[in-house]
Amino acid sequence: MADARRSWATGSFLQDATHVAIETWHAYRTPIILTTFFVLFGLLIYLHLTEERGQLLVLPKIYEQDTKPQPEQQLDEKVVELPKATAASKTNGPRRIKGELNKPNKTIQIQEVSRSEEIQVLVFFSSITATTQKVASEYAQTLDKALSGIDTTSGASFLPIQVLDLAEVDLDEYFITPPKIKGRNGSFVDTFYLFLIPSYNIDTINDTFLEHMNETHHDFRIDTAALAPILGYSVFGLGDKEGWPTEDEGFCFQAKEIDKWMAKLTGRKRAYPLGVGDSKGDFKERLAEWSSGVVDVLSLVSQTGSLGEGVVGSGDPIESDDEEEAEDDDGEVLFDEGSVPNMSKLKQQGRIDDLEDLGRMIKKESGPAPVAVDFTSYGKRTAKKAPTQAPKEMVPKESPTYKSLTKQGYAIVGSHSGVKICRWTKSALRGRGSCYKFSFYGINSHQCMETTPSLSCSNKCVFCWRHGTNPVGTNWRWVVDPPELIFAGVKENHYKKIKVMRGVPGVRAERFAEAMRIRHCALSLVGEPIFYPHINEFLAMLHAERISSFLVCNAQHPDQLAALRHVTQLYVSIDASNRESLRRIDRPLHRDFWERFQRCLEVLRARRFRQRTVFRLTLVKGFNVEDEVAGYADLVEKALPCFVEIKGVTYCGTSTSAGAGLTMGNVPFYHEVQEFVTALEAELQRRGLGYGLAAEHAHSCCVLIASERFRVDGRWHTVIDYDKFFALLEERGPDGEFTPEEYMGPATPEWATWGNGGFDPRDTRVDRKGRAIEG
Ligand SMILES: Cc1cc2nc3c(=O)[nH]c(=O)nc-3n(C[C@H](O)[C@H](O)[C@H](O)COP(=O)(O)O)c2cc1C
Ligand code: SF4
């Protein structure tokens, strides 16, 4: 009973409580809901603010990635790794993840980048009769000393060099993956490989080593670029020129092979070009030269962890041995009319603005008076009112011209000058032959800088190679950059472009070192150099640094030509033998182009005993070859130049070159050039003018006719004595009296004379695929 009462009481209490709760809910539900919401929201904010931060994981920004291979590059890495600190990394913070575009595989690679604080240089050598062994240990001591002189306070330091005999080391340990070498603080260090290799045409350890590299490269279980994590490598070969006089005959052939295999195994980490030396001759000199380049690179590597500027590992076609020959860079490629304004447009623009702009601009310039400019072209238009705007830049950075030129490989200096590495410069660096100027005049192509202080010109020649984007004008109407700026800028950019060639296969260490000293300047790129108002000051700067000057002008500026001071060789382009033909081929902007042309010839005649004057003829079949021999002979008779250079036009095959009316059919074959020069020489002889066929460079379809003034005791002397030229210039000044004969050099080499082809016998002719051409 008591239980029943207790249960009734409990039930009644629950009923009351429920009733009260329901009532309360109905009365206060809105404030209850709102209060609960705010309390929960406040709690959430509190938890967020007091929470401990985790690492923020960010996907790599591929576009920020330096495309050059990094020190710890793993070419087969394909996974994004989360950051994790390692003992070897420089900082204690999380490692940075970077994206990498791996060009050879055409897939995006993600890789980690870390740099060690120490670098181990390993000097590998092989030796059969102990010469290289001795050289290697002496070299290691010298290199140790040189490396200890490098300031490594802000970079990686060097461990003492290890010298390793390839016959004794376990090749697997060093040439499948890089060895794990511990540094002073116990962490793993980066490695840099150097090789000193004699060549043997008998079976030696070199063959074992080469076979090992071959197998590693082709082993499908191993990455094709298994040694990519090393910082870089370079090879020096020792050989014997007595037994193996040229590279074709096997001089240092195994060093060359090792250099190539290492390029493959490291993913093209050639840090410095292959050096070679004759163990019975020049090897000490060559080794010192190579070594100094290697030390420079090692210094850079210690500071930056990378091999610096260059095409190393970029996959750029320039690296390839199959490199397609670039278009001929010596001003002979066909014209691409493109965006050159037409004549009527130019006339609409009017020239008076240019004239007055020029006047103001010249006033602004301090320093020596500029060369006079032409104001004669457009008659009445010169009476127009003065403009109010300031002179403009010839090639502004944002202009399409600038973009087009830089795309074609030019570096634009200031606002109107340009510099570009010519294909012969690259070819000579790789021992594949120099341009005809080496054969004719002794110019080393790898020491030649091709530049112009004026990208503008007053002609629109059909065979011009400037692809139609260059500014044209009859007068200088732009801002004038000071010659100091141009000189410093072109040199800097030239050297930059040479340095880029450092990792290119086949570049010779010796030539690379020589190329770092410009000896010649070809003022013949695009445009008209003589147009530049301070051309004489610019020439003086070249000469002060003993850089010879070959200046090519277009025979349209007689006043500037007359005001020109000494140059080493003065060219005038003779593109046709009569008025109509000249109009058709040069498409000159000057109305009085023929009169100007004639006046230039008179200037040349008057200067022939002061300047080495040259006619340059560019033969374009269908334009200026047929039936023009007598006409050209008339011009030679008028100006009596020291030399006549005849060259077949080169075709660049752009869509708009066809628009200029030219096709491959306009390019003469070499035998046609030969026929033409033979006929011209006969005509000159017939007139008793004293000229003869002196030299040829069949490789570039070029022949040289010279005045008998340059024939001594029956031998042609077309080569220039550059030292003598500078001595005369220093002694007698830029306007001084001295004759071309006074700086005539030694006899033209036999191989360059007419009938002998003219290919430099030190080099190897290659076809467009880089294969050696026999004979
Ligand atoms: C049997 C023999 C074959 C050689 N073959 C070549 C060769 O093919 N190309 C080359 O440039 N030098 C060749 N040499 C020259 C050596 O490479 C050169 O003398 C070198 O300095 C030897 O170095 P080592 O004393 O360290 O072995 C050869 C020498 C010998 C004795
Ligand atoms: S002279 Fe100089 S720029 Fe001209 S083709 Fe020869 S190397 Fe090139």
UniProtKB/TrEMBL annotation:
Q: Which reaction does it catalyse?
A: N(1)-methylguanosine(37) in tRNA(Phe) + pyruvate + S-adenosyl-L-methionine = 4-demethylwyosine(37) in tRNA(Phe) + 5'-deoxyadenosine + L-methionine + CO2 + H2O
InterPro entries given for it? Aldolase_TIM (IPR013785), Flavodoxin/NO_synth (IPR008254), Flavoprotein-like_sf (IPR029039), rSAM (IPR007197), rSAM_sf (IPR058240), tRNA_wybutosine-synth (IPR013917), tRNA_wybutosine-synthase (IPR034556)
Q: Which residue windows does the record flag with biased composition (Acidic residues)? A: 318-335
Names of required cofactors: [4Fe-4S] cluster
Residue ranges for the region (Disordered) are 306-340, 744-775
Q: Where is the composition biased (Basic and acidic residues)?
A: 760-775
Q: What is the name of this protein?
A: S-adenosyl-L-methionine-dependent tRNA 4-demethylwyosine synthase
Ranked from the top, the taxonomy reads: Eukaryota, Fungi, Dikarya, Ascomycota, Pezizomycotina
